[in-house]
Design a protein that fits this description.
By secondary structure, the chain is α+β, with helices and mostly antiparallel strands. It has helices spanning 2-19, 52-61, 184-206, 212-223, 299-310, 376-385, 392-401, 407-421, and strands at 41-50, 65-67, 76-79, 82-90, 94-99, 101-116, 119-120, 123-124, 132-134, 141-153, 158-170, 175-176, 181-182, 208-210, 225-227, 233-235, 238-243, 247-249, 252-261, 264-266, 289-298, 313-316, 322-332, 338-346, 350-361, 366-374, 404-405, 423-426, 429-445, 449-464. It starts with a helix and ends in a 7-residue tail after the last strand.
C-alpha cells in the first residue's frame, strides 16, 4: 500500500511538471469602450484649365467664310425697294473671359453687291437699278461680331451652355451706287440673322450635355479596390461629390471639385460595392484635403511580426533562472486593451498573459503598450508556482519588442505621398500639392481586428493644359 501511494504521488508530480504553467485566459471587464464612426474625409481639388487649346479648337471648327443665301446668284430682299448679296470673311477668333462668361468675338470683312428700285405702298413701279458694289474698289468693309457664352452646372450633373449673339458693330460704312446710298443697317441686320441661325445650331448641338455617364465612370473607379504594393488594399467608399460654379479669368477656367469619402485599408481584399453616382450636393468652394483612414490590421499578421522578433529569445532573470520565448499571440476582446499570450520554455515552461493598452506617442511617432502587466489570473498562477517569473524585467523587455517605431514609415510615406501629388497624371494634366501632416488619431483593439485610424491633411490642385474634347 505505501508503494501505491508513493507511485500515485510521483505520477501527480510528473503530470504537473509536464503540463507546465497554464493559467486561465483573461476575462476583461466590460468598459465604455466603443469604436467611433469613421469621420467623412474631405478632398477638395481646384482645377485650372488652360483655355488656349480650346481657343485653338474653336479656331479650327468655326467657319471662316459666310455668305448670303444662295450666293452668288441669289439675293437677299428685306424690303420692296432694296436687295443685296454679300460674302463675309472672318478674322482670327478673339476670346475674353470674365466670371462665368466667355465672349467669342472676331472682326469680319465683307463685300456687298446691291441694287434698288422705286416702290409705292410695297409695290414696285420701276425695274432694279444696275448692281452696285461695296467693298471692292475701296477694300473690304470691316465689322466686329461675337457671341457671349456662359456655362452652368445643375445638381443632376448636366452642363448647360447659354449663347447670346452680340449686335454686330460696323467699323466701316457701306455705300453703294453713284448716289452713295448707305445700306450698312440692312447688311448688319442680315448678318445678325445669320449669326442667330449659327447660334441656334450651336445650342442644339452643345446647349445641354449630360455629364452623368462620365461621372459614373469616375465614380466606379473610386469604388474599386486598389492594391497598395504589399501594404494591403485600399477602398475609398465615396459618399458625396461637389462642384462649384465655373469661373474664368484671363486664359484660364477655374473649377473646384470636392469629394467626401470613408476610406479603409485592409490586409484582406474586401468586396467591391459599385453604387450610382449621386447628384451634386452643393456648390460651395472649400480648401485642401483632410483624410481620415481606417487601417484594419489582422491580429495574425501582427502576431507574426512580434513572434519573429521574440522567437527563441532568452531572458536570464537570475543566476540560475531563465526563460526562452517560443511564441507571442496578440488578440483583442472589444476592450481598450490588447492581450498578449506568451508561450515560453526554460527553467519552467508554459504560458502567461499580458494586458496593455496600445497608444500612439505623436512626439516619438511610436505605438507602444501602455501599462503593460501580467493579467490577474497569470499573476496569481505565477505567485503560486513560479514567483521568480513574476518579474518586472521580463515585462520591460517584452515592452521593448511590442513598441513599433513608425517615424521612418511616416517619413517615407510622406515623401512618397508628396511625390505622387506632384506629377503628370496623363499627358497634358499636371497635379501639384503638399501633405502638411500625417498622424494616428485613435487605436481600436477590436475582437477580430486592430483598427488604427490615421489622418492626413494638405493641399492638391490640378492644371489641365491639354485635353481630349471628343464626346
Amino acid at each position: 500500500m505505501p508503494k501505491l501511494f508513493l507511485g500515485l504521488y510521483l505520477l501527480a508530480i510528473l503530470t504537473s511538471c509536464s503540463k507546465g504553467i497554464i493559467p486561465d485566459k483573461p476575462s476583461l471587464a466590460r468598459t465604455e469602450f466603443k469604436m467611433d464612426s469613421l469621420p467623412e474625409s474631405e478632398i477638395n481639388i481646384p482645377i485650372q484649365v488652360n483655355l488656349k487649346p480650346i481657343y485653338a479648337l474653336a479656331e479650327k471648327t468655326v467657319d471662316t467664310v459666310f455668305t448670303s443665301v444662295n450666293w452668288p446668284d441669289g439675293w437677299v430682299q428685306g424690303t420692296c425697294d432694296t436687295r443685296y448679296k454679300y460674302t463675309f470673311r472672318r478674322g482670327p477668333l478673339q476670346m475674353k473671359t470674365s466670371g462665368a462668361s466667355l465672349i467669342l468675338g472676331f472682326s469680319g470683312y465683307y463685300r456687298i453687291i446691291g441694287s434698288t428700285r422705286v416702290c409705292v405702298n410695297g409695290t414696285a413701279i420701276s425695274p432694279w437699278t444696275p448692281a452696285c458694289r461695296c467693298g471692292y474698289e475701296e477694300g473690304e468693309r470691316k465689322v466686329n461680331v461675337g457671341f457671349q457664352n456662359s456655362v452652368s452646372l445643375t445638381t443632376d450633373l448636366k452642363a448647360n451652355l447659354a449663347i447670346r449673339t452680340l449686335q454686330p458693330q460696323p467699323v466701316d460704312k457701306c455705300s453703294v451706287c453713284f448716289w452713295g446710298q448707305d445700306i450698312t443697317t440692312q447688311v448688319m441686320q442680315g448678318l445678325k440673322e445669320q449669326l442667330d441661325a449659327a447660334k441656334t445650331d450651336m445650342q442644339k448641338s452643345f446647349g445641354s450635355y449630360d455629364l452623368r455617364p462620365r461621372f459614373q465612370q469616375a465614380w466606379d473607379q473610386l469604388n474599386k479596390v486598389y492594391g497598395l504594393y504589399g501594404l494591403g488594399w485600399l477602398q475609398m467608399n465615396p459618399t458625396k461629390i461637389r462642384i462649384n460654379s465655373l469661373s474664368a479669368k484671363n486664359d484660364s477656367l477655374n473649377i473646384n471639385i470636392g469629394l467626401s469619402a470613408r476610406p479603409i485599408v485592409t490586409f484582406e481584399k474586401p468586396q467591391e460595392h459599385l453604387t450610382v453616382a449621386p447628384n451634386i450636393t452643393d456648390f460651395g468652394s472649400r480648401q485642401g484635403f483632410n483624410i481620415f483612414l481606417d487601417a484594419v490590421l489582422n491580429y495574425d499578421s501582427l502576431t507574426n511580426i512580434i513572434s519573429s522578433q521574440l522567437r527563441d529569445k532568452r531572458f536570464d532573470l537570475s543566476s540560475n533562472r531563465y526563460v526562452i520565448i517560443k511564441s507571442c499571440t496578440l488578440y483583442g476582446m472589444d476592450n481598450e486593451n490588447l492581450i498578449t499570450k506568451v508561450q515560453f520554455e526554460g527553467s519552467e515552461k508554459g504560458i502567461f498573459y499580458l494586458i496593455g493598452k496600445p497608444v500612439y506617442d505623436a512626439a516619438t511617432r511610436t505605438i507602444e503598450m501602455k501599462d503593460l502587466d501580467f493579467d490577474i489570473k497569470s499573476k496569481n498562477m505565477l505567485l503560486k508556482s513560479a514567483s521568480w517569473l513574476f518579474n518586472r524585467r521580463i515585462i520591460n523587455e517584452l515592452r521593448k519588442y511590442s513598441t513599433f517605431d513608425l517615424s521612418a514609415y511616416v517619413s517615407s510615406a510622406t515623401t512618397s505621398f508628396n511625390q505622387q501629388l506632384n506629377r503628370e497624371l496623363i499627358k497634358g494634366i499636371q497635379s501639384s500639392g503638399h501633405m502638411d501632416d500625417m498622424k494616428i488619431v485613435k487605436i481600436y483593439p477590436l475582437r477580430e481586428y486592430l483598427i488604427v485610424r490615421g489622418n492626413c491633411s494638405g493641399s492638391l490642385s490640378i492644371r489641365i493644359d491639354s485635353i481630349n474634347f471628343s464626346f
